[in-house]
Amino acid sequence: MVSSQKSMTMDWEGAGMTEAPTAPDSLKEAGLTLSFLNDLTLRTLYLRGGMLGLDLARFMCLPFKVIEESLKFLKDEKCIEVAGGDLIGRVSYRFNLTELGRARAQEAMKLCAYVGPAPVPLEDYVEQTYRQAVTGIGCSPEPLRAAFSHLVIPDELFSAIGPAIVSGRSVFIYGPPGNGKTSIARAIGEFMNNAGGEVYVPYAFLAENSIITVFDQSLHQLADDRDADRIEDNEATI
After folding, report:
1. CA 170, CA 164: separation in Å to the nearest integer?
2. I need a labelling partner for 211 at 20 to 30 A (CA). Which of 1, 136, 156, 166 fits?
3. Bridge partners of 96?
4. CATH fold group of domain 25-118
């Protein structure tokens, strides 16, 4: 038997799967302060050496127009120097640390040694987690029957499984030994893995000025960035 923790309406459909998080258009949308991004930029250039603007943006996983404010500020503060680029514009400029920039980067490293993709605020991570709840899984009888095709399930029980999956609540499967509880649980898991789509997690998130990494190469796959080769806003210069 299958029972949800609370009484459930016999609703087969979830709320609909959410789309992948979108890239921020500004520093404010990224949820980061200019000071934080300045330190991250300094640490990155300190450890990796001079970088093209496009490569720096890709490494930090932010659009170039978002990190541009930090690059301009650091240039005005004499912390970085800009080498010439080519006709594609400012994203092709090479940014190098000055002596002052190296000194400030060393100070920033003492406070935090993290170098990598810009973290997302904890609040954004929590919001994305809620958007990816199991209540968003689309569940209809036909696809679910395919996942249970190797089992003989009474219609009454089958009619309870679908709404239980999208209820967003705990499901308790009970019965005497050998009545198929484990097989049902595995079939539910297989269906959710196939129908649930991608679950997006950040590389790292920021909470109370601490950076906590989430990405684990042994468990996660990098999202396919279809815009990785697109160069934006290349008309202005720094």
Report:
1. 8
2. 136
3. 81
4. Arc Repressor Mutant, subunit A (1.10.10)
